Amino acid sequence: MTIVDALIGPVSKLLDKLIPDKEARARAKLELIELQGRQELEELNLQLSAIIAEARSADSWTSRARPSFMYVMYLLILFTVPMGVISAFEPEVATGISTGMTAYLRGIPESLYALFGTGYLGYTAARTYGKVKGVER
């Protein structure tokens, strides 16, 4: 929460008390909302600039790291299909594989899962931003 967000509610109530004219009060509130919108847009641009710079990097590892990480996660999810087939024919083997994978995945620190979520959302936001700006197809 930014300072502007924290101030919107109290300032809006203060405007109700200080400005008796309804039209002037509405204009003041509109300016306050526009200020909040500009602040949020500036924050979004700042966050996306790092992601866009990373995607445009000449270093192939830097520009492909986030999509590659997503592909690994997709592979883990797709691995459930053969596991379903294995469990139909050899339930004990499927249970052993499942127990091993569960133990492995629980061993991964929570911060890496958070990193994946942040990376996924950041990649999606950067792609959307690039498409809106007409930079990407």
Automatic annotation (TrEMBL):
InterPro entries: GTA_holin_3TM. The chain crosses the membrane at residues 69-89. Keywords: Membrane, Transmembrane, Transmembrane helix. This is Holin of 3TMs, for gene-transfer release. It comes from Sphingomicrobium lutaoense.
